[in-house]
Amino acid sequence: MSKTEALQRVKVAKINELPQKIGKVIKIDGHDIALFHLSSGKVRAVENKCPHKQGPLAEGMVSGEYVFCPLHDWKIDLTSGEVQKPDDGCVKTYETEVTDGVVYILL
């Protein structure tokens, strides 16, 4: 069984309904997930709270593959979830997939 087959695909949006560089909050099983359509065309998903003071990352400014927390400007890598040094921390990331214009989060 491949990794993708072991994961549940949850349809969350249509790619053409996601503005680039603007976060969107998706709720799945009681979890808030921040979804981002990057200017590169990629879609990234991370838990919607900064590890510092639980700032809502979906409201943050996006630059390249990073989001800046709107509360204290922590820079978070949307691929790895790692906070840029000198700050320290990590957010949960979710694998995404776009098929026929539909965005899925793999859980």
TrEMBL record:
Record bears the keyword Metal-binding: yes
Limits of the Rieske domain: 10-105
Sorted UniProt keywords: 2Fe-2S, Iron, Iron-sulfur, Metal-binding, Nitrate assimilation, Oxidoreductase
PROSITE patterns xrefs: RIESKE
Keyword Oxidoreductase: yes
UniProt GO MF annotations: 2 iron, 2 sulfur cluster binding; metal ion binding; monooxygenase activity; nitrite reductase [NAD(P)H] activity; oxidoreductase activity, acting on paired donors, with incorporation or reduction of molecular oxygen
CDD domains reported for this sequence: Rieske_NirD_small_Bacillus
Gene Ontology BP terms: nitrate assimilation
Listed InterPro entries: Rieske-like_NirD (IPR012748), Rieske_2Fe-2S (IPR017941), Rieske_2Fe-2S_sf (IPR036922)
Pfam families per the UniProt record, alphabetical: Rieske
Protein name: Nitrite reductase (NADH) small subunit
Native source species: Evansella caseinilytica
